[in-house]
Amino acid sequence: MSCNSCSSDINTVPKGCKSNGNCADGGCEKLSVFDWLSNMSLPTGQEPINIVEVRFKNGRKHFYRNVDNLQISIGDIIAVEGNPGHDIGTVSLTGELIRIQMKKKGVAFDSEEVKKIYRKATQRDIDIWKAAREKEYETQYKGREILGRLGIKMKLSDVEYQGDGNKATFYYTADDRVDFRQLIRDLASTFSIRVEMKQVGLRQEAARLGGVGSCGRELCCSTWLTDLRKVNTSAARYQQLSLNPQKLAGQCGKLKCCLNYELDTYLDALSDFPRQDIVLKTKKGEAIFIKMDIFKRVLWYTYKEERNKWFKLTLENVKEIIDLNKNNKPVASLEDYELELLAENVVEYEDVVGQDSLTRFDIPKKRKNKQKNKHKNSQSSGQPQKGNGSPKNKKQRPPNRSANKNKNT
After folding, report:
1. Strand, helix or coil at 65?
2. How many structural domains does the chain have?
3. Looking at beta carbons, which pairs linking 126-132 to residues 24 or more positions away fall under 8 Å?
4. pLDDT per position as a tens digit, 180-203
5. CA angle 310, 315, 319 (to 5 degrees)
6. Residue 80 resides in a domain
């Protein structure tokens, strides 16, 4: 989604290229769109659409109408109509793909939300825009101080200045309804700007701020995910996950959006499994469900009276027992259907490269004591040690081979 040098600081300013997200190559851009219709020609008699998509801070996008038929391409910095004044943004999409994007977001072509484009941004417009962007962090810091002084229970998550620097939008999150009339007066008098308060949800806040999830990648909501659907705990139950809020919750404090990614696959796989509340009737007693392995198609059951042992059954065996119970024919016991636990095959990797073992340094080396080895060799050969001196100081004479030879003869 981004280059290696585009990691942002607390002020959402890239540390690598220092372009404040205006490099126009898609590196710093969030929720980028690939125009796969750019190389296709229009049908005869159809005029090109005069609406473009403009991106602002933290992936905020809107549609604007090119009433003056300006030559605009992706990556151009333009001045658009604001409320009031004008705003500065970067063109993120042009062409016929705009029709699909507007239909996806439910925006009509003649809607009042589609405002007009004023001009291409001049150097003076860009300088004012960058100066306003540099004041956002300080404004957010002082705004939080004003919140603490007033004692209002709300969290100021982000501040976004308009391109002309005359208006600032304060994004906040709050659990209850907040009366921020006095807050608006204090903010307007402190910064001498027009103030707009906008409440966002916890998921929208995480999408604006960004971050890295538990999977080690950037958050889906801040890179490509635009449809933030509701996630229920039933999604975790269908996937046989532990209902641990610390593991299932994301940075927003809500359930992770990725719980819905594989939910349809699990539902299709579970359609062949029996209900978990079905009791298996045997002559030894009734058995209840404990857990299952969806991919291996294996279920575990145990007796109501003897729950110290679990019985591993295949899905086909469970269906067979249920069919027999429907005909009032209880089976003998679960032991007859129990599967023997197969030992897992340990995969052994061969040394095809010819390298040494990676754990060769973990084995402690044995110290070789030459003195003890010499002492053991002398005792095993039956040769007496001469004197009390150490063998280092006295040289031992080699054995007389001729005398031994005569003695043996």
Report:
1. strand
2. 4
3. 126/77, 126/88, 128/163, 128/164, 128/165, 129/88, 129/163, 129/164, 129/165, 130/20, 131/165, 132/161, 132/162, 132/163, 132/164, 132/165
4. 889 999 999 999 999 999 999 899
5. 105
6. yes
For residues 109 and 58, state if they share a domain.
Answer: yes
Residue 52 · residue 71 · CB < 8 Å: no
State the chain's mean pLDDT as an integer: 81
pLDDT tens digits for range 244-284:
888 899 989 899 999 999 999 999 999 989 998 899 999 88
The DSSP element (H or E) to which 266 belongs, if any, is helix 263-270
The reply to whether 199 and 253 lie within a common domain is no
Strand arrangement, sheet containing 167-173: 155-161, 167-173, 194-199
For a pLDDT cut of 90, what percent of the chain falls above it?
36
The answer to whether residues 183 and 135 belong to one domain is yes
Residues 139 and 182 grouped into a single domain: yes
pTM (predicted TM-score): 0.67
Q: Other C-beta atoms within 10 Å of 173: how many?
A: 15
Identify any residues that bridge with 117 across adjacent strands, giving them in sequence order.
Answer: 80
Of 231-235, 236-240, 294-298, 356-360, minimum mean pLDDT range: 356-360
- The two tokens of residue 285 are 């007693």
Give the domain range for residue 255: 229-271
What does the H/E/C string look like for 340-407? CCCCCCCCCCCCCCCCCCCCCCCCCCCCCCHHHHHHHHHHHHCCCCCCCCCCCCCCCCCCCHHHHHHH
In a domain, 19, yes or no: no
- Same domain for 253 and 236: yes
Of the given ranges (17-26, 114-123, 212-221), which has the lowest mean pLDDT? 17-26
pLDDT band at 343 (very low <50, low <70, confident <90, very high): very low
In the chain the first and final C-alpha atoms are separated, in Å, by 93
